[in-house]
Amino acid sequence: MTQDQTVNQHTMAVLVDNEAGVLARVIGLFSGRGYNIESLTVAETDHEEGLSRITIVTSGTSMVIEQIKAQLERLVPIHRVQDLTIEGPSVERELALVKVAGTGDPRVESLRLADAFRARVIDTTTKSFTFEITGTSSKIDAFIGLMKPLGLVDVSRTGIVAITRGIDRL
Amino acid sequence: MPPKPSQELMEGAEIILKALVEQGVDTIFGYPGGAVLPLYDALFKQNQIHHILVHHEQGAVHAAEGYARSTGKPGVVLVTSGPGATNAVTGMVDALMDSIPLVILTGQVPTQLIGTDAFQEADTIGITRAATKHNYLVKDVADLGRVIHEAFYVATTGRPGPVVVDLPKNIQVEKGPYTGSPRVKHKSYRPQIKGDIDAIKAAIELIAGAKKPVFYTGGGIINSGPGASLLLREFVHMTGFPITSTLMGLGAFAASDKQWLGMLGMHGTYEANMAMHDCDVMINIGARFDDRITGRLDAFSPNSKKIHVDIDRANINKCIRVDIPIVGDAGHVLEDMIKIWKANVTQVDTDARESWWAEIEEWRAKDCLSFEQSGDVILPQYALHRLHELTKDKDRYITTEVGQHQMWAAQYLKFEDPNRWMTSGGLGTMGYGLPAAVGVQVAHPGALVIDVAGEASIMMNIQEFSTAVQHDLPIKIFILNNQYMGMVRQWQDITYEGRYSHTYSEALPDFVKLAEAMGGVGYRIEKPDELDSVIKKMIKSTKPTIVDCRVAQLENCYPMVPSGAAHNEMILGPEDVNMTRKDDPTLV
Ligand SMILES: Cc1ncc(C[n+]2csc(CCOP(=O)(O)OP(=O)(O)O)c2C)c(N)n1
Ligand SMILES: [Mg+2]
Questions:
Q1: I need a labelling partner for B121 at 20 to 30 A (CA). Which of A121, B59, B412, B588 fits?
Q2: Domain A3-83 is in which class?
Q3: Domain residues of chain A, as ranges?
Q4: Across all residues in chain B, what is the average pLDDT?
């Protein structure tokens, strides 16, 4: 049987019990079965119910993507898995902290570009700025690319978080 | 949960045993050590739970698997921390692959020492995460009762599997309230039992219109319980269609039935594999399109519409894309199928069915399992044929090791009922059969329990023969001794031009003396005409018994679908072997 061999990127939202080791189960599943993780974020989202939300960006053929969802669903502490790419539409955002060091023109230029990207300055010394920027990953890539010749020294990114559009919850 | 003032506090070890008793546990297989001393002390003080002391923790897990597979109840294991737990890992993966419900209690160093490289500390939760269906570390005695009950619930529902509960020593001693009950309501785990009724209706429509249908069944029927086997028989008889099964599903359908085609797959029958290849509708119930079944994926049953009933959604479209997936328990889905069939299907295309059977009869006429015993050297097939004839009317349970003997056992021993056949299918664990036989015999004291073994495999857990002696378990080990790791040697024949690299056993024990030295009975068979009399003695033996049956050293197991071949490219015998066939390193 010939199957669709095109590899596509998918974003999955995973609601899990916030218990010890749950992230290891998810990551172990991906490494053990040879699936890709392109981005992964996790944080508690419902303190009363003890629930965390994991956002995973992965890629694979349609058969692999279907497998990933089914394999995630069978992990015992997992409540729900949503393939946002299929069950969307959804919005995605990433946050990055970008540190640029320098003086003189490059320093001024970095500030001007930051303004154009709506990045905020969250720390300053006489020789550096740290910017906070949110947006799509490609916007952040573009911003980092522009900062490189202007004295980029360090980047910290959150990875992608995503949520469906409209009124429904996960 | 803070204890209610009235609630009585119990020691952790007592809580564990109370929960086990509430779960109906009568037997546990175990091996003591420092980190489980409190639990062993609690065991000492009670008499509701019977403890079977093994000689290696791997043996405990396989014994529990044999117990579980032959009774339908979960098997329970108790081992110490560190090496006790790591020794049990092979058994866990074995149970995971074959969907056997187990609860494995492992000792752990006290909570305050976890992470300090304490004596006999191992990260059991980390190590067993991928070896179990689920695992728990209990850090608060107040959770203990609930976690034990939950472990049984997870192990036995949905697709069954092994569950580890890691028990720090201090938790076994601390006092706490008894929490939880056997009626578990889990926060997130929701196995799907009933199949989608619209999908079942669509499946029935497809089945009713089929011209060349075949049932392909597996271990899921056995796991669903004996009721599922009865429903399967009813449905298959209603349709009049042919049926085959995987290694794991043998016994779900009676081997003596006219509609039975024999096992399918790598060493399946010609008729079963050809029917799979040529069918127009495939009805997979409780099997998972394993590579040992499908052969080359892109040539697998190219012209069929496929129905797949599986309790594990992740098995759907994993290896083979199917047309009608049905997620649910085999027994429940079969029940619905029968109902809908009775209500809607007035007749099947009997003409098509008859000509399909005529085609199948032609394949059957090849008589692919025939062999000719002549001369002084015992053919393994003949040995098993005699073993079958002399034991088939007894209350018989068969376990196996892994290798050619296992495949011959699947081919030549015929199973009429479920839960009578215990073998390591998914993991293919040499050393499974002897301890599994121990577990089966514990559960069925009066039955005839035979481990069909190879001389290499049996050495992997031979220490468990002492367990059988210690607990008066008269298991029978029937070794087809070919002095080779026959199955590996066979592949060396077929794809490595007969270079037998390290597959000959230069040094083997005298198995008769070995049996005697360990406190059992040993027999040797060297000539075909000795088979019947020794097998009869073996059956009568009231002690653990080893039969060292010397068989043809270079016999290969056929039919065979070599890895990477299609079902219709089977090798039926040595004359079909093309010595230039290359091993395909991209396939197992
Ligand atoms: C624990 C383990 N190690 C290695 C293997 C690979 N293997 C599969 S069959 C086999 C040979 C088995 O020899 P024997 O028990 O004598 O059985 P025979 O094939 O000769 O009947 C080996 C080494 C395995 N299945 N399990
Ligand atoms: Mg051998």
A1: B59
A2: alpha beta
A3: 3-83, 91-162
A4: 96
